[in-house]
Amino acid sequence: ILKGLVVNVILRNAGLGAINIFLPVFLYRIGGIYLVVVYMVWGSLLKITVGDKICRVIGKIGFKKSVVMSSMTLVAVLLLLRICEVTGFWGWAILAETLAPIVVFMYWVPYHLLFLETEDKDYGKNSGIVGAVGTWSGVAGPLLGGAIISGFGFGTLFGWGILTVLISMIPILLLPNEKVAWN
Fold it and tell me: What sign for the dihedral angle of Cα 177, 178, 179, 181?
């Protein structure tokens, strides 16, 4: 479990860290400060209003399936942002942010799977490992993102994010199914 989660967190954070720090710049370039504000406010409102409903879905399908759904939804979000860049129509960005609560809430997996599958005496150590790896890969992501944007542009950055998210699902798919029943 620990190895699979570490690989997942490294890849996912490297891809998302590269994108998230530059996303406001991208949105500003497409639609100005208005789009940046609308994107952030709309996403926050959605997370507040649908968060509990999404969490109920996690309880029904399990953590492993939820992280796969989150990752596939994240790929859709990144594709929509890429389409937004190509077309210049910022409605695609708003549609992407409409899917964001699914991405955020359904990716609760790492610490919960670790908690379910780790003996009590090892949980702190293993949680610390996943946390440290997450932090360092989160630092590497923006550095890589800046290099990608400088050399190749936002389109390549979104492609990088899609690739890392897809590859990050592999270790999750290899994990055993967890046994959890909750509402």
Answer: negative
Report DSSP letters for 142-175, one per residue: HHHHHHHHHHH-HHHHHHHHHHHHHHHHHHHHHS
Contact yes or no for 19/153 (Cβ under 8 A): no
pLDDT over 90 percentage in the chain: 36
pLDDT tens sequence across 77-89:
999 999 999 999 9
What is the C-alpha separation between 2 and 63, in angstroms, rounded? 15
Q: Is 141 in contact with 15 (CB distance < 8 Å)?
A: yes
Express each pLDDT in 114-155 by its tens digit: 666 677 787 788 878 888 887 888 788 888 899 999 999 988
Produce one character per residue of 51-84: b if its CB has 16 or more CB atoms within 10 Å, e if not.
eeebeeebeeebbbbbbbbbbbbbbbbbbbbbbb
Rg (CA), the chain: 17
- Whole-prediction pTM value? 0.84
Non-local CB neighbours of 86 within 8 Å, separated by 6+ positions: 155
Residue 120's pLDDT is what? 76
